[in-house]
Write a structure and sequence with these properties.
With 334 residues, this protein is α/β, with parallel strands linked by helices. The chain has helices at 11-21, 47-56, 66-74, 87-105, 125-135, 154-157, 175-184, 201-213, 219-224, 245-254, 280-292, 324-330; strands at residues 2-6, 26-33, 60-64, 110-111, 141-142, 229-234, 237-241, 260-264, 272-275, 302-308, 315-319, 331-333. 41% of the residues are buried.
Length: 334
């Protein structure tokens, strides 16, 4: 008998997979990666899930579903959590993807590491039922860690899985999982805080601002939210200012035609990116913000050089670094 394990690489999904493997099920791990994941290696793969399958000794398929997932973020049927996390719609989306792969690969059911009551939005009993129904998977999702608190699933009814060997973990405490990890000699697993940027308050503010001002945002726009300091100059114009050399490099990497790159002359400082059609006042303000975060912040006036991406021509503007009070007015997120 063959099944699919949704494997984030966290402790719960790793333990769930191990419990099913111990019942003789042939298991294949699947990871659906998005631009909002925090456990990726330059966007190529999920490091946590890769490490988990090495521990478990099972194959892994990683699918980057970032582009499709943007539609889930734009209009989640079941709303957002405490930040910009559409957890119920996210789960439905991922499980529909898993169902399609299950059918394509000839597998019989899906295994997840969900724990009843652990997450307030998507792991309530009623939410789990709703998610199963909307994903078209009623009875075909096995949750080994909490199975004894949940309805009997198809693989249990068919005798593929022994329900007595499944567990009765519920709630937010991680102690039962940690004890089980020790028993299975599973070590060096990720912390339980979660790996989704949409649950982070700072990132959520940036995401909300982007959606408010540009409902047709792109994947590139989202990548840009991941680094630097962000400022809103007008409904159509924003500025991203690098914090360090790594940020500076990424800002240049994700700049695109029409953007403006700014940098102070004669003083070390950040690379800034202006996105949107800016007038002279907004360009001057972007330059003043750039000067504020450079070594020129203490001088009366400094030179800031700027150029449009895709053009060689550079221009200069002389500005006073913006005051701290003025900086705070336009800041979306530090």
């Amino acid at each position: 008998m063959k099944a699919i394990a949704l494997l984030s690489g966290g402790l719960d999904s790793t333990l769930a997979a191990r419990l099913v493997l111990d019942q003789g099920i042939d298991l294949e791990a699947v990871n659906f990666m998005t631009v909002f994941c925090t456990c990726t290696n330059r966007g190529a793969t999920c490091l946590a899930s890769q490490k988990a399958v090495e521990t478990l000794g099972i194959p892994l398929q990683v699918f980057n579903v970032s582009e499709e997932y943007l539609n889930v973020i734009r209009n989640p049927k079941h709303g957002y959590g405490s930040n910009m996390n559409p957890c119920i719609d996210c789960r439905i989306f991922m499980l529909k993807k898993a169902k399609a792969y299950m059918e394509e690969s000839g597998c019989s059911f899906i295994v997840t590491g969900e724990v009843l009551g652990q997450r307030p939005m998507s792991q309530r009993r009623d939410a789990m039922r709703l998610i199963e129904k909307e994903a078209g998977l009623v009875g075909f999702i096995l949750r080994p860690l909490s199975a004894q608190f949940l309805s009997v699933t198809h693989p249990e009814r068919e005798g593929w899985i022994d329900r007595e060997k499944l567990l009765n973990i519920q709630g937010r405490s991680r102690k039962p999982q940690m004890r089980l990890a020790e028993q299975f000699n599973i070590r060096d697993y990720p912390c339980p805080a979660g790996g989704c940027l949409l649950t982070d308050p700072g990132f959520a503010r940036r995401m909300r601002d982007l959606m408010d001002h540009d409902p047709d945002f792109s994947l590139n726009d989202v990548h840009l939210l991941k680094f630097g300091r962000h400022f809103r100059l007008s409904p159509k114009v924003k500025v991203v200012v690098g914090r360090n050399e790594e940020d500076n490099q990424k800002i240049e990497t994700f700049s695109q035609a029409g953007d403006v790159l700014l940098k102070t002359v004669g003083y070390p400082g950040p690379v800034s990116l202006l996105r949107g059609e800016a007038d002279g006042t907004e360009m001057e303000r972007a330059a003043s913000i750039t000067a504020r975060y450079s070594k020129a912040k203490g001088i009366e006036k400094g030179e800031v050089q700027y150029r449009k991406v895709g053009r060689e021509e550079e221009k200069s503007i002389f500005v006073s670094p913006l005051s701290e009070a003025e900086i705070q007015k336009g800041m979306i997120s530090e």
